[in-house]
User: Which sequence fits this backbone?
């Protein structure tokens, strides 16, 4: 037999992929038909149930109540049935939630709508963990500090908020007025403080393979780009006079963001070019939330711009980076204007991309040109923003602001369990008297006392250490770059005390979620190395067969 005939006969040999028997094929078809039938039955029941409840709510509260009821029931049922898809929907909803809230009437219930995706998805993840005997607390290193923090919170809830509820609030500096609900304020405060910790486990189990990680990061940069484009339209509408902003306001209202001046997307807005003040909310409820969204997005867009294996998605990441920087300039958010460019530079060194000249130089040139064109065409805007930042720093340096609030809170301490959960939480003000604290750890100290604050610091420190060890163990260059970008974000938020981003969207979501993403990277890295090893072995076997045929 000639070599050519030997090769042809070898090509006709069956491959290693097993073929299904007729019986197995029929079993697969029956299982698929059964799953399709179950899905149809579930969707039918969910839709009819949602419509029925919506009709009842319609008689009580009108069309909006009916529509909201139908949407809520469908979200809850579908999120419970499909927790993975619900988590993606949750991440998409977070940046757009402020816009949706005010489009539908600014109901307080709408501000909790994102939890209609999160809570059922969490229940689904919990049930999966129970069935498969998987841990729900990820990583195990946070278990002890988490339980200690939770213990202090429960003691504060029972002995401080509970005492205030029973009318004994004078002993801790508050009078439990009849209109106050201190216990429920404490429950809300606990939810704000620790409610999104389980997102770490949700993210960990959401990612099963490399493709899941890429899908997640691509969704993140796409929604960032969309949000920035919507905010840019908002800014253009204001500059063109389509929206008036606060130009007609008088007195102190000139310098206050107001929901009455809402423009296109988002919520409360401040825009008065005659006075040189602008605070855009973007797609969020309030301007400062938008600023922290831009800061957070600088990490995620950088990661995709440099680490995504697809050239197209790297360009989308680059566009998202440019949009984040542009909006940091024009939105009037001083802290975003200061931190976004700083973190871009920090990430270049933290991820090692500064040494990757083949990838860095083209991206750097394109990004530099985009920024230069934007700055050159709007020099007055840049000068005004820079001057505003300088004036603010000189009037109230951040380090002095933080120190003053720590001193003020420390002097007001009445006991080791603090003044009550929720007593410095902005979202709990409808349930009782709250103290305005614009720094995070003084806020935690005020609510749960020095021991509780120390326990919470131990919790975020354990998260920071565990995520650092996880990403450092990764060998894949792209995965390691993703991990480094996300970890710098975790490190910064863990110990940042200027304002309270860890209390509200989007940072309260992104912090815990992307901690889970980092913790999953070593497993994804191991999968990819096993695939590469398997492909390498197949290649070696193929070459041996070819050599034997040639011989």
Assistant:
């Amino acid at each position: 037999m000639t070599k050519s005939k030997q090769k042809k006969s070898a090509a006709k040999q069956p491959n290693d992929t097993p073929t299904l028997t007729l019986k197995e094929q029929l079993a697969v078809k029956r299982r698929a038909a059964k799953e399709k039938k179950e899905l149809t039955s579930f969707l039918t029941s969910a839709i009819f149930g949602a419509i029925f409840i919506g009709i009842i709510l319609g008689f009580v509260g009108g069309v909006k109540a009916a529509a909201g009821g139908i949407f809520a029931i469908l979200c809850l049922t579908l999120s419970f049935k499909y927790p993975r898809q619900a988590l993606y929907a949750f991440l998409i909803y977070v940046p757009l939630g402020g816009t949706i809230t005010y489009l539908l009437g600014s109901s307080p219930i709408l501000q909790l709508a994102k939890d209609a995706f999160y809570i059922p998805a969490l229940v689904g993840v919990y049930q999966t963990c129970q069935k498969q005997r998987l841990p729900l607390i990820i990583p195990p290193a946070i278990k002890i500090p988490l339980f200690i923090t939770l213990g202090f919170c429960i003691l504060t809830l029972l002995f401080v908020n509970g005492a205030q509820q029973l009318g004994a609030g004078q002993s801790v500096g508050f009078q439990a007025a009849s209109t106050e609900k201190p216990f429920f304020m404490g429950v809300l405060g606990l939810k704000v403080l620790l409610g999104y910790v389980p997102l770490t486990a949700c993210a960990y189990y959401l990612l099963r393979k490399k493709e899941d990680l890429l899908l997640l990061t691509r969704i993140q940069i796409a929604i960032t780009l969309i949000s920035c484009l919507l905010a840019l339209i908002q800014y253009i509408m204001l500059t063109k006079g389509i929206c008036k902003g606060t130009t007609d306001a008088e007195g102190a209202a000139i310098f206050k963001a107001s929901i009455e001046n809402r423009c296109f997307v988002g919520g409360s807005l401040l825009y008065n070019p005659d006075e040189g003040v602008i605070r855009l909310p973007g797609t969020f409820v309030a301007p400062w939330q938008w600023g922290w969204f831009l800061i957070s997005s600088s990490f995620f867009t950088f990661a995709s711009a440099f680490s995504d294996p697809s050239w197209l998605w790297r360009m989308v990441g680059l566009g998202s980076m440019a949009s984040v920087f542009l909006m940091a300039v024009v939105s009037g958010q001083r802290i975003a204007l200061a931190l976004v460019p700083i973190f871009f530079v920090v990430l270049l060194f933290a991820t090692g991309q500064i040494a990757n000249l083949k990838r860095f130089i083209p991206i750097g040139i394109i990004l530099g040109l985009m920024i230069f064109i934007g700055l050159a065409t709007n020099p007055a805007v840049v000068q005004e923003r820079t001057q505003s930042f300088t004036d603010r720093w000189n009037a109230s340096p951040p380090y002095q602001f933080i120190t003053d609030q720590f001193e003020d809170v420390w002097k007001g301490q009445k006991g080791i369990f603090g003044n009550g959960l929720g007593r410095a939480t902005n979202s709990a003000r409808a349930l009782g008297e709250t103290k305005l604290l614009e720094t995070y750890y003084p806020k935690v100290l005020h609510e749960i006392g020095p021991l509780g604050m120390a326990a919470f610091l131990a919790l975020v420190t354990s998260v920071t250490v565990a995520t650092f060890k996880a990403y450092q163990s990764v060998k894949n260059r792209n995965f390691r770059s993703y991990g480094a970008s996300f970890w710098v974000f975790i490190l910064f938020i863990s110990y940042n005390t200027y304002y309270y981003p860890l209390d509200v969207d989007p940072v309260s979501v992104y912090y815990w979620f992307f901690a889970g993403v980092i913790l999953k990277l070593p497993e994804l890295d191991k999968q990819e190395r096993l695939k590469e090893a398997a492909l390498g072995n197949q290649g070696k076997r193929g070459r041996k067969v070819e050599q034997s045929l040639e011989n």
User: Anything to note?
Assistant: The first helix runs from residue 3 to 12. Residues 1-17, 169-176 have pLDDT under 50 and may be disordered. The beta strands are 270-272, 277-279.
